[in-house]
Amino acid sequence: MAYKNLQGFIDILEKSNQLKRIKTQVDPNLEITEITDRISKNEGPALIFENVKGSEYPVAINLMGSFERMSLALGLKKLDDIGNKIAGLLDLKKYSTLFGKISAIPELLPIAFIFPKKVKKAACQEVVEEPDLDKLPILKCWPQDGGRFITLPIVFTKDPETEEQNAGMYRLQQYDKNSTGMHWHLHKDGKEIYEKYKKKGITKMPVSVALGGDPAITYAATAPLPGMIDEMLFAGFLRNKPVEMVKCITNEIYVPAESEFVLEGYVDTNELKEEGPFGDHTGYYSLKDLYPVFHIEKITRKKNPIYPATVVGKPPMEDCYMGKATERIFLPLIKMILPEIVDMSFPLEGVFHNCAIISINKKYPKHPFKVMNALWGLNQMMYTKMLIVVDSDVDVQDMSTVMWKVFNNIDAKRDLLISEGPLDALDHSSDNAFYGNRMGIDATKKTAADGHKRPWPDDITMSEEIKKIVSEKWDEYGID
Domain segments of the chain: what residues? Predict the structure, then answer.
Protein backbone atom coordinates (compact mmCIF):
# COMPACT_ATOMS: atom_id res chain seq x y z
CA MET A 1 0.00 0.00 0.00
CA ALA A 2 1.35 3.42 -0.94
CA TYR A 3 0.48 6.48 1.10
CA LYS A 4 0.39 9.71 -0.85
CA ASN A 5 2.30 11.47 1.89
CA LEU A 6 2.94 11.65 5.62
CA GLN A 7 -0.46 13.13 6.34
CA GLY A 8 -2.13 10.26 4.51
CA PHE A 9 -0.39 7.83 6.84
CA ILE A 10 -1.42 9.92 9.85
CA ASP A 11 -5.05 9.75 8.69
CA ILE A 12 -4.86 5.94 8.60
CA LEU A 13 -3.35 5.81 12.09
CA GLU A 14 -6.08 8.08 13.41
CA LYS A 15 -8.85 5.99 11.84
CA SER A 16 -7.38 2.85 13.42
CA ASN A 17 -7.16 4.49 16.88
CA GLN A 18 -3.36 4.37 16.89
CA LEU A 19 -2.77 8.10 17.17
CA LYS A 20 -3.32 10.64 19.93
CA ARG A 21 -3.54 14.40 19.39
CA ILE A 22 -2.13 16.58 22.18
CA LYS A 23 -3.72 20.03 22.30
CA THR A 24 -1.98 21.29 25.44
CA GLN A 25 0.99 23.55 24.70
CA VAL A 26 4.29 21.66 24.91
CA ASP A 27 7.89 22.81 24.78
CA PRO A 28 10.20 21.33 22.11
CA ASN A 29 12.98 21.80 24.66
CA LEU A 30 12.99 18.41 26.51
CA GLU A 31 9.25 18.25 27.28
CA ILE A 32 8.25 16.52 24.02
CA THR A 33 11.05 13.97 24.57
CA GLU A 34 9.89 13.12 28.09
CA ILE A 35 6.30 12.62 26.92
CA THR A 36 7.40 10.53 23.95
CA ASP A 37 9.80 8.43 25.99
CA ARG A 38 7.07 7.49 28.46
CA ILE A 39 4.75 6.58 25.61
CA SER A 40 7.45 4.54 23.83
CA LYS A 41 8.37 2.55 26.91
CA ASN A 42 4.69 1.61 27.36
CA GLU A 43 4.09 0.69 23.70
CA GLY A 44 1.76 3.66 23.36
CA PRO A 45 0.29 5.42 20.30
CA ALA A 46 1.69 7.76 17.71
CA LEU A 47 1.49 11.40 18.80
CA ILE A 48 0.65 14.74 17.19
CA PHE A 49 1.56 17.80 19.25
CA GLU A 50 -0.72 20.51 17.87
CA ASN A 51 0.41 23.39 20.07
CA VAL A 52 4.19 23.62 20.16
CA LYS A 53 5.77 26.55 21.93
CA GLY A 54 7.54 28.91 19.56
CA SER A 55 6.26 27.37 16.30
CA GLU A 56 3.09 27.35 14.24
CA TYR A 57 3.74 23.81 12.99
CA PRO A 58 2.48 20.63 14.69
CA VAL A 59 4.96 17.84 15.49
CA ALA A 60 4.33 14.20 14.54
CA ILE A 61 6.32 11.63 16.49
CA ASN A 62 6.42 7.91 17.29
CA LEU A 63 4.51 7.19 14.07
CA MET A 64 6.34 3.87 13.51
CA GLY A 65 6.81 3.09 17.20
CA SER A 66 5.27 -0.39 17.33
CA PHE A 67 5.42 -3.60 15.30
CA GLU A 68 1.88 -2.97 14.08
CA ARG A 69 2.54 0.62 13.00
CA MET A 70 5.87 -0.29 11.41
CA SER A 71 4.11 -2.95 9.35
CA LEU A 72 1.31 -0.53 8.52
CA ALA A 73 3.89 2.09 7.45
CA LEU A 74 5.12 -0.30 4.77
CA GLY A 75 1.64 -1.51 3.84
CA LEU A 76 2.18 -4.98 5.30
CA LYS A 77 0.28 -7.38 7.52
CA LYS A 78 3.61 -8.47 9.01
CA LEU A 79 7.21 -7.41 8.44
CA ASP A 80 8.21 -10.81 7.04
CA ASP A 81 6.01 -10.25 3.99
CA ILE A 82 8.54 -8.02 2.21
CA GLY A 83 11.38 -10.41 3.00
CA ASN A 84 9.37 -13.30 1.56
CA LYS A 85 8.63 -11.24 -1.55
CA ILE A 86 12.34 -10.53 -2.03
CA ALA A 87 13.15 -14.21 -1.49
CA GLY A 88 10.62 -15.15 -4.17
CA LEU A 89 12.08 -12.70 -6.67
CA LEU A 90 15.60 -13.97 -5.98
CA ASP A 91 14.70 -17.65 -6.35
CA LEU A 92 16.66 -18.35 -9.52
CA LYS A 93 15.29 -21.90 -9.78
CA LYS A 94 11.96 -20.42 -10.89
CA TYR A 95 13.54 -18.97 -14.02
CA SER A 96 15.45 -22.07 -15.11
CA THR A 97 12.69 -23.37 -17.42
CA LEU A 98 10.60 -21.68 -20.10
CA PHE A 99 7.43 -22.34 -18.09
CA GLY A 100 9.08 -20.82 -15.02
CA LYS A 101 10.07 -17.68 -16.95
CA ILE A 102 6.53 -17.26 -18.27
CA SER A 103 4.99 -17.91 -14.85
CA ALA A 104 7.23 -15.28 -13.29
CA ILE A 105 6.12 -12.48 -15.64
CA PRO A 106 3.15 -11.31 -13.49
CA GLU A 107 5.41 -11.23 -10.45
CA LEU A 108 8.24 -9.36 -12.16
CA LEU A 109 6.19 -6.95 -14.27
CA PRO A 110 5.45 -4.44 -11.47
CA ILE A 111 9.19 -3.91 -10.94
CA ALA A 112 9.31 -2.03 -14.23
CA PHE A 113 6.93 0.57 -12.78
CA ILE A 114 8.60 1.42 -9.45
CA PHE A 115 11.42 3.65 -10.70
CA PRO A 116 11.29 7.23 -9.35
CA LYS A 117 9.11 9.51 -11.47
CA LYS A 118 10.11 13.13 -12.13
CA VAL A 119 7.38 15.77 -11.91
CA LYS A 120 7.42 19.51 -12.55
CA LYS A 121 4.99 20.65 -9.83
CA ALA A 122 5.04 19.48 -6.25
CA ALA A 123 3.23 20.04 -2.98
CA CYS A 124 6.56 20.48 -1.20
CA GLN A 125 7.12 23.71 -3.17
CA GLU A 126 3.75 25.36 -2.51
CA VAL A 127 5.59 27.88 -0.31
CA VAL A 128 9.16 29.09 -0.90
CA GLU A 129 10.84 30.96 1.97
CA GLU A 130 14.12 32.41 3.03
CA PRO A 131 15.69 30.08 5.59
CA ASP A 132 14.71 30.56 9.22
CA LEU A 133 15.11 27.35 11.21
CA ASP A 134 13.86 29.13 14.34
CA LYS A 135 10.34 28.83 12.91
CA LEU A 136 10.53 25.02 12.93
CA PRO A 137 9.71 23.07 16.11
CA ILE A 138 13.18 21.50 16.20
CA LEU A 139 13.67 19.41 19.33
CA LYS A 140 16.26 19.55 22.04
CA CYS A 141 15.89 15.95 23.13
CA TRP A 142 18.11 15.35 26.17
CA PRO A 143 19.62 17.63 28.86
CA GLN A 144 23.25 17.32 27.73
CA ASP A 145 22.52 17.69 23.99
CA GLY A 146 24.63 20.34 22.26
CA GLY A 147 21.50 22.08 21.00
CA ARG A 148 18.38 21.45 18.93
CA PHE A 149 18.52 18.58 16.44
CA ILE A 150 16.53 17.70 13.34
CA THR A 151 16.13 13.98 14.03
CA LEU A 152 14.27 12.56 11.01
CA PRO A 153 15.93 14.18 7.97
CA ILE A 154 16.28 12.48 4.59
CA VAL A 155 19.56 13.87 3.30
CA PHE A 156 19.95 13.85 -0.50
CA THR A 157 23.36 14.18 -2.16
CA LYS A 158 24.59 13.65 -5.72
CA ASP A 159 27.80 11.85 -6.65
CA PRO A 160 29.97 14.31 -8.65
CA GLU A 161 31.38 11.47 -10.78
CA THR A 162 28.34 9.33 -11.58
CA GLU A 163 25.63 11.96 -10.90
CA GLU A 164 23.69 9.27 -9.04
CA GLN A 165 21.71 10.44 -6.03
CA ASN A 166 21.97 9.02 -2.55
CA ALA A 167 19.60 9.35 0.37
CA GLY A 168 20.66 8.81 3.96
CA MET A 169 19.57 9.81 7.43
CA TYR A 170 22.08 11.93 9.34
CA ARG A 171 21.15 14.09 12.29
CA LEU A 172 21.37 17.88 11.87
CA GLN A 173 22.25 20.09 14.83
CA GLN A 174 20.90 23.60 14.41
CA TYR A 175 23.59 26.28 14.72
CA ASP A 176 21.58 29.36 13.73
CA LYS A 177 18.71 30.37 11.44
CA ASN A 178 20.31 28.99 8.27
CA SER A 179 22.95 26.40 9.17
CA THR A 180 23.27 23.01 10.83
CA GLY A 181 25.84 20.32 11.36
CA MET A 182 25.98 17.40 8.92
CA HIS A 183 26.65 14.30 10.99
CA TRP A 184 27.67 11.69 8.44
CA HIS A 185 30.01 9.00 9.71
CA LEU A 186 33.22 7.63 8.26
CA HIS A 187 31.58 4.55 6.70
CA LYS A 188 28.44 6.26 5.32
CA ASP A 189 27.67 6.95 1.66
CA GLY A 190 27.14 10.67 2.30
CA LYS A 191 30.65 10.94 3.72
CA GLU A 192 32.10 9.07 0.73
CA ILE A 193 30.38 11.45 -1.70
CA TYR A 194 31.58 14.42 0.39
CA GLU A 195 35.16 13.19 0.07
CA LYS A 196 34.79 13.06 -3.73
CA TYR A 197 33.79 16.74 -3.82
CA LYS A 198 36.66 17.59 -1.51
CA LYS A 199 39.16 15.67 -3.68
CA LYS A 200 37.94 17.51 -6.78
CA GLY A 201 38.39 20.85 -5.05
CA ILE A 202 34.66 21.65 -5.22
CA THR A 203 33.95 23.73 -2.12
CA LYS A 204 30.14 23.92 -2.43
CA MET A 205 28.62 20.44 -2.34
CA PRO A 206 24.89 20.62 -3.11
CA VAL A 207 22.68 19.01 -0.47
CA SER A 208 18.91 18.96 0.01
CA VAL A 209 17.07 17.62 3.04
CA ALA A 210 13.50 16.36 2.91
CA LEU A 211 11.32 16.15 6.00
CA GLY A 212 8.26 13.92 5.84
CA GLY A 213 6.62 11.92 3.07
CA ASP A 214 5.30 8.39 2.70
CA PRO A 215 6.87 6.50 5.65
CA ALA A 216 8.31 3.98 3.18
CA ILE A 217 10.54 6.81 1.91
CA THR A 218 11.71 7.64 5.41
CA TYR A 219 12.44 3.99 6.12
CA ALA A 220 14.29 3.53 2.80
CA ALA A 221 16.72 6.31 3.79
CA THR A 222 17.76 4.22 6.82
CA ALA A 223 18.04 0.88 5.03
CA PRO A 224 21.51 -0.73 4.61
CA LEU A 225 21.32 -0.93 0.83
CA PRO A 226 24.21 -1.81 -1.48
CA GLY A 227 25.79 1.28 -3.03
CA MET A 228 24.30 0.66 -6.48
CA ILE A 229 20.67 0.60 -5.23
CA ASP A 230 18.82 3.93 -5.28
CA GLU A 231 16.95 4.43 -2.00
CA MET A 232 13.99 5.96 -3.84
CA LEU A 233 13.84 2.93 -6.13
CA PHE A 234 13.75 0.74 -3.01
CA ALA A 235 11.01 2.94 -1.58
CA GLY A 236 9.06 2.41 -4.81
CA PHE A 237 9.51 -1.35 -4.38
CA LEU A 238 8.24 -1.16 -0.80
CA ARG A 239 5.17 0.90 -1.72
CA ASN A 240 4.52 -0.81 -5.10
CA LYS A 241 4.38 2.63 -6.66
CA PRO A 242 7.03 5.05 -7.93
CA VAL A 243 8.15 7.93 -5.74
CA GLU A 244 7.39 11.23 -7.43
CA MET A 245 10.46 13.47 -7.38
CA VAL A 246 10.81 17.19 -8.10
CA LYS A 247 13.93 19.23 -8.84
CA CYS A 248 14.98 21.60 -6.11
CA ILE A 249 14.87 25.34 -6.77
CA THR A 250 18.52 26.13 -5.92
CA ASN A 251 20.30 22.97 -7.08
CA GLU A 252 20.01 19.95 -9.36
CA ILE A 253 18.95 17.49 -6.67
CA TYR A 254 15.54 15.82 -6.86
CA VAL A 255 13.50 15.31 -3.68
CA PRO A 256 10.19 13.55 -2.94
CA ALA A 257 7.40 15.77 -4.21
CA GLU A 258 5.15 15.10 -1.20
CA SER A 259 7.70 16.09 1.44
CA GLU A 260 6.37 18.36 4.21
CA PHE A 261 9.49 20.57 4.20
CA VAL A 262 12.64 20.71 2.06
CA LEU A 263 15.85 22.42 3.14
CA GLU A 264 17.96 23.32 0.09
CA GLY A 265 21.58 24.31 0.35
CA TYR A 266 25.16 23.14 0.34
CA VAL A 267 27.96 21.78 2.48
CA ASP A 268 31.22 23.76 2.42
CA THR A 269 33.93 21.12 2.00
CA ASN A 270 36.51 23.42 3.65
CA GLU A 271 34.49 24.04 6.81
CA LEU A 272 34.17 21.97 9.98
CA LYS A 273 32.37 22.90 13.18
CA GLU A 274 31.88 21.31 16.59
CA GLU A 275 28.75 19.18 16.72
CA GLY A 276 27.17 17.36 19.67
CA PRO A 277 26.91 15.89 22.24
CA PHE A 278 23.70 14.09 21.36
CA GLY A 279 21.62 11.57 23.32
CA ASP A 280 21.79 8.71 20.85
CA HIS A 281 20.03 5.42 20.07
CA THR A 282 22.66 3.55 22.09
CA GLY A 283 21.14 5.05 25.25
CA TYR A 284 24.34 7.06 25.79
CA TYR A 285 25.47 10.48 24.64
CA SER A 286 27.62 10.45 21.52
CA LEU A 287 30.55 12.81 22.02
CA LYS A 288 31.02 16.16 20.37
CA ASP A 289 33.37 16.28 17.40
CA LEU A 290 34.06 18.28 14.24
CA TYR A 291 31.65 17.78 11.33
CA PRO A 292 30.83 19.58 8.07
CA VAL A 293 28.37 22.48 8.05
CA PHE A 294 25.15 22.50 6.02
CA HIS A 295 24.23 26.00 4.80
CA ILE A 296 20.56 26.42 3.92
CA GLU A 297 19.69 28.75 1.03
CA LYS A 298 15.95 28.13 0.70
CA ILE A 299 13.19 26.35 2.61
CA THR A 300 10.25 25.06 0.61
CA ARG A 301 7.16 23.51 2.17
CA LYS A 302 3.50 22.66 1.91
CA LYS A 303 0.95 25.31 2.85
CA ASN A 304 -0.01 23.39 5.97
CA PRO A 305 2.89 21.07 6.81
CA ILE A 306 3.46 18.76 9.76
CA TYR A 307 6.97 18.57 11.18
CA PRO A 308 8.13 14.92 11.55
CA ALA A 309 10.50 13.98 14.36
CA THR A 310 11.74 11.04 16.34
CA VAL A 311 13.47 10.64 19.68
CA VAL A 312 16.23 8.12 20.26
CA GLY A 313 17.58 6.90 23.59
CA LYS A 314 17.45 3.83 25.79
CA PRO A 315 15.45 1.11 24.00
CA PRO A 316 12.72 0.45 23.23
CA MET A 317 11.98 3.53 21.15
CA GLU A 318 10.65 4.17 17.65
CA ASP A 319 13.96 3.46 15.90
CA CYS A 320 13.98 -0.07 17.39
CA TYR A 321 10.99 -1.02 15.25
CA MET A 322 12.63 0.44 12.16
CA GLY A 323 15.63 -1.75 12.97
CA LYS A 324 13.39 -4.80 13.28
CA ALA A 325 11.98 -4.04 9.83
CA THR A 326 15.53 -4.11 8.47
CA GLU A 327 16.13 -7.45 10.19
CA ARG A 328 13.14 -9.10 8.51
CA ILE A 329 13.47 -7.42 5.10
CA PHE A 330 17.15 -8.19 4.58
CA LEU A 331 17.25 -11.70 6.08
CA PRO A 332 16.52 -13.38 2.68
CA LEU A 333 19.50 -11.58 1.11
CA ILE A 334 21.79 -12.80 3.88
CA LYS A 335 20.41 -16.34 3.51
CA MET A 336 21.29 -16.25 -0.19
CA ILE A 337 24.93 -15.81 0.80
CA LEU A 338 24.74 -18.08 3.85
CA PRO A 339 22.01 -20.66 3.17
CA GLU A 340 22.74 -22.48 6.44
CA ILE A 341 21.14 -19.57 8.32
CA VAL A 342 17.62 -20.34 9.53
CA ASP A 343 16.70 -17.10 11.26
CA MET A 344 18.24 -13.96 12.72
CA SER A 345 17.32 -11.51 15.45
CA PHE A 346 18.70 -8.13 16.42
CA PRO A 347 17.43 -7.74 20.00
CA LEU A 348 16.21 -4.25 20.86
CA GLU A 349 18.70 -4.02 23.72
CA GLY A 350 21.52 -4.47 21.22
CA VAL A 351 20.55 -1.23 19.44
CA PHE A 352 21.00 -2.84 15.98
CA HIS A 353 24.79 -2.97 15.74
CA ASN A 354 25.78 -4.43 19.11
CA CYS A 355 24.24 -7.90 18.98
CA ALA A 356 22.80 -10.36 16.48
CA ILE A 357 21.48 -13.85 17.25
CA ILE A 358 21.63 -16.38 14.42
CA SER A 359 20.25 -19.91 14.20
CA ILE A 360 21.91 -22.26 11.71
CA ASN A 361 21.76 -25.78 10.36
CA LYS A 362 25.10 -26.84 11.80
CA LYS A 363 26.85 -29.42 9.60
CA TYR A 364 30.48 -29.56 10.69
CA PRO A 365 32.91 -28.55 13.45
CA LYS A 366 33.45 -24.79 13.81
CA HIS A 367 30.61 -24.14 11.37
CA PRO A 368 29.38 -21.30 13.64
CA PHE A 369 32.80 -19.61 13.35
CA LYS A 370 32.53 -19.72 9.55
CA VAL A 371 29.14 -17.99 9.77
CA MET A 372 30.48 -15.35 12.16
CA ASN A 373 33.41 -14.43 9.93
CA ALA A 374 31.18 -14.31 6.86
CA LEU A 375 28.67 -12.01 8.56
CA TRP A 376 31.40 -9.62 9.72
CA GLY A 377 32.34 -9.31 6.06
CA LEU A 378 28.89 -8.12 4.98
CA ASN A 379 28.45 -4.37 4.64
CA GLN A 380 27.00 -2.93 7.89
CA MET A 381 27.18 -6.31 9.64
CA MET A 382 30.84 -5.43 10.18
CA TYR A 383 29.71 -3.21 13.08
CA THR A 384 28.07 -6.05 15.02
CA LYS A 385 30.02 -6.37 18.26
CA MET A 386 28.49 -9.65 19.37
CA LEU A 387 27.27 -12.57 17.25
CA ILE A 388 25.52 -15.43 19.03
CA VAL A 389 25.02 -18.63 17.03
CA VAL A 390 22.51 -21.27 18.14
CA ASP A 391 21.13 -24.47 16.65
CA SER A 392 18.31 -24.47 14.11
CA ASP A 393 15.65 -25.57 16.60
CA VAL A 394 16.19 -22.51 18.83
CA ASP A 395 13.78 -19.59 18.37
CA VAL A 396 16.10 -16.60 18.06
CA GLN A 397 13.25 -14.25 18.97
CA ASP A 398 12.90 -15.96 22.37
CA MET A 399 15.58 -14.20 24.42
CA SER A 400 15.03 -16.37 27.49
CA THR A 401 15.75 -19.56 25.55
CA VAL A 402 18.70 -18.00 23.75
CA MET A 403 20.29 -16.88 27.00
CA TRP A 404 19.66 -20.32 28.52
CA LYS A 405 21.62 -21.84 25.64
CA VAL A 406 24.44 -19.29 25.94
CA PHE A 407 24.76 -19.60 29.70
CA ASN A 408 24.77 -23.40 29.63
CA ASN A 409 26.32 -24.45 26.33
CA ILE A 410 29.59 -22.59 26.04
CA ASP A 411 33.11 -23.41 27.05
CA ALA A 412 34.98 -20.10 27.20
CA LYS A 413 38.18 -21.34 25.58
CA ARG A 414 36.54 -23.39 22.83
CA ASP A 415 33.44 -21.41 21.91
CA LEU A 416 34.46 -17.75 21.88
CA LEU A 417 35.89 -16.02 18.82
CA ILE A 418 37.48 -12.56 19.12
CA SER A 419 37.80 -10.61 15.87
CA GLU A 420 39.36 -7.19 15.39
CA GLY A 421 37.62 -4.97 12.89
CA PRO A 422 35.50 -1.86 12.21
CA LEU A 423 32.98 -0.67 14.78
CA ASP A 424 30.17 1.83 14.57
CA ALA A 425 31.24 5.44 15.07
CA LEU A 426 28.85 5.66 18.03
CA ASP A 427 30.52 2.80 19.89
CA HIS A 428 31.97 4.26 23.09
CA SER A 429 33.42 1.08 24.61
CA SER A 430 36.41 0.65 22.33
CA ASP A 431 39.70 2.37 23.13
CA ASN A 432 39.81 3.59 19.53
CA ALA A 433 37.23 5.34 17.40
CA PHE A 434 35.81 3.31 14.48
CA TYR A 435 37.48 -0.02 15.26
CA GLY A 436 37.97 -2.51 18.05
CA ASN A 437 37.25 -6.10 19.05
CA ARG A 438 34.10 -8.08 18.25
CA MET A 439 33.03 -11.33 19.86
CA GLY A 440 31.34 -14.43 18.47
CA ILE A 441 29.68 -16.97 20.78
CA ASP A 442 29.06 -20.51 19.63
CA ALA A 443 26.12 -21.72 21.73
CA THR A 444 25.34 -24.74 19.56
CA LYS A 445 25.26 -28.35 20.72
CA LYS A 446 28.71 -30.02 20.64
CA THR A 447 29.43 -33.58 19.51
CA ALA A 448 32.48 -35.81 19.20
CA ALA A 449 33.15 -34.18 15.84
CA ASP A 450 33.67 -30.92 17.72
CA GLY A 451 36.16 -32.62 20.02
CA HIS A 452 33.64 -32.91 22.84
CA LYS A 453 34.68 -36.00 24.78
CA ARG A 454 31.50 -36.56 26.78
CA PRO A 455 27.88 -37.24 25.78
CA TRP A 456 25.86 -34.05 25.29
CA PRO A 457 22.65 -34.13 27.35
CA ASP A 458 19.22 -33.76 25.77
CA ASP A 459 16.96 -30.80 26.53
CA ILE A 460 14.28 -31.63 29.07
CA THR A 461 10.96 -31.87 27.21
CA MET A 462 7.65 -33.52 27.96
CA SER A 463 6.32 -36.26 25.66
CA GLU A 464 3.76 -35.15 23.08
CA GLU A 465 1.31 -37.78 24.35
CA ILE A 466 1.21 -36.31 27.85
CA LYS A 467 1.01 -32.76 26.50
CA LYS A 468 -2.06 -33.75 24.49
CA ILE A 469 -3.72 -35.42 27.49
CA VAL A 470 -3.15 -32.38 29.71
CA SER A 471 -4.39 -29.98 27.05
CA GLU A 472 -7.59 -31.97 26.58
CA LYS A 473 -8.24 -32.13 30.35
CA TRP A 474 -7.13 -28.58 31.19
CA ASP A 475 -10.61 -27.21 31.87
CA GLU A 476 -11.30 -30.13 34.23
CA TYR A 477 -8.42 -29.09 36.49
CA GLY A 478 -10.20 -25.88 37.41
CA ILE A 479 -6.98 -23.86 37.25
CA ASP A 480 -7.51 -20.24 36.23
Answer: 6-308, 338-450
Q: Do domains 6-308 and 338-450 have the same CATH topology?
A: no
- Active site annotation includes 398: no
pLDDT tens digits, one per residue of 46-60: 999 999 999 999 999
Report the candidate in 319, 309, 307 with the shortest Cα–Cα distance to residue 346. Answer: 319
Give the chain's mean pLDDT: 89
Q: Does CATH place domain 6-308 in 1.10.10.10?
A: no
> pLDDT tens across 74-116, in order?
888 877 777 777 665 555 454 445 444 444 444 444 555 678 8
Q: What does the pLDDT read at residue 105?
A: 43
Q: Is 348 exposed, middle or buried (0-12, 13-18, 19+ CB in 10 A)?
A: middle
* Catalytic residue from among 145, 280, 415, 427: 280
The model carries a pTM of 0.86
Superfamily of domain 338-450: UbiD C-terminal domain-like (3.40.1670.10)
pLDDT digit string, tens, across residues 20-34:
999 999 999 999 999
